[in-house]
Specification:
Elements lengths: L10 H12 L4 H8 L6 H6 L10 H9 L8 E12 L5 E10 L2 H10 L29
């Protein structure tokens, strides 16, 4: 399905899925919630709402796994030596992680994503502050 909320049915279901995943609830607590009468298929149909596309946390995770991923993440580790010394007189060394994505792959993903096609501009355009087109907006973008 090619809806803005796919693989979820609606924005309401997307919001529920987002809340369930960020709530800190355990898998068994999420499963208990999804078995409550208020979200059961019979009750949902009585309220003229579509049934949830997920029945438990595993099917919710399967829906999430089916979402587009975009370019992969890469991690690079750096060591920095400080000016302070530890108890043994050695300079303190701290390890840092830099998480990054390939910017070319990110641009390729954005340009090839049909969701953004109506927002893409490939040539300069003139914009004005007023409806009579007397005051142009000047900027670098």
């Amino acid at each position: 399905e090619n809806t803005p909320w796919a693989p979820f049915i609606s924005g309401e279901e997307w919001g529920l899925a987002q809340w369930l995943m960020s709530s800190g609830l355990s898998q068994s607590e999420i499963n208990k919630y999804l078995k409550l009468d208020m979200v059961s298929p019979a009750n949902v149909q009585a309220q003229n709402r579509p049934e949830l596309s997920f029945k438990d946390k595993q099917t919710l995770l399967n829906n999430i796994d089916s979402l587009p991923r975009g370019p992969g993440w890469q991690c690079k580790t750096f060591e920095a030596t400080g000016h302070e010394c530890d108890e043994e007189g050695k300079e303190h060394v701290e390890v840092f992680e830099l998480w990054k994505r390939d910017p070319i792959e990110c641009i390729r993903e954005l340009l090839s994503n049909p969701s953004f096609s109506c927002h893409m501009k490939y040539k300069p355009e003139r914009r004005y502050e007023d409806e009579w087109m007397k005051k142009p907006i000047l900027s670098e973008m």
